[in-house]
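Dear all,

This email documents one entry for the complex benchmark we are building for the journal club exercise. For each entry we list the sequence lines for every component of the assembly. Then comes the predicted three-dimensional structure of the complex as a token string, followed by one or two observations. Please use this as the template for your own entries, and keep the labels exactly as they appear.
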Amino acid sequence: MANFTPISAAIGGGLIGLSAVLLMLLTGRIAGISGIFGGCLSFGTTDKAWRVAFLAGLILAPLTAGAIGYAVPSPQMPSSWIVVIAAGLLVGFGTRLGGGCTSGHGICGIARLSARSITATVIFMVAAIVVVALTHHVFAG
Amino acid sequence: MPIIAALLCGLIFGWGLLISGMMQPAKVLGFLDIFGAWDPSLAVVMTAALAVSVPGFALAKRRGRPILGTQSAWPTRTDIDQPLVIGSVLFGVGWGLVGLCPGPALENLATLSPRVIGFVAAMAAGMVLHDAWQKRSPPIRDERTLAAAADG
């Protein structure tokens, strides 16, 4: 557990929870990123302004952090473009079909004590753990 | 006002992901790799988030209508159906392949990494593909699309 960073994880997690609570208290919306982003892409959605504003804040966050001297690490991505594209398609299609992702089901849904969201969270966690076990250990090149 | 509130909430959410290290796919994969050098940080992130959101949501629910709006969009569905299960499996597989879920993927656009841009484009395509596929399916699906979108 050499990489375990409990203090920064707790502070960051608290901020994520605070964001979800503030969004609900102020605007009455669920801070589910796949739902917010999916709504931006859908022609039928009439309430795009708050969605775009939330996502703009999300993307601006690392830039503001950079301005106060907080280093933003460049993400380590798989070298294979096929893996990158396939994973993106699966995440996009899967979160829409399942009605949420790590934020919508994992944080907002569990906070509402929704059995539906708890089920979804357990399923996507187990699926991801199995994939990492297979790619990092069983078929590790 | 609600637009400014949403922007501020997005900023706070982004700072949370950044500070917790969850913007980094490697850190997320470290949590998912329970048979390797396991890094429990993501579990702490979720626990801390829930420690704030459980009482916060209870307060919001008791309050009723939002401060800057007329109606709260609380998800209404409670059923555990096939799309929920299959969708969550597909999402989990994609998440495990790269270590990016939608929040960190979008936030990482700020780094201008070509592979992140490719991932987000594919994610958007997956969402549009799903919505198009739902539209072609029987009418019952339409109701499902609306309700499913309400989960988050």
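Observations: Confidence is low (pLDDT under 50) at residues 141-145 of chain B. Residues 78-152 of chain B form one domain.
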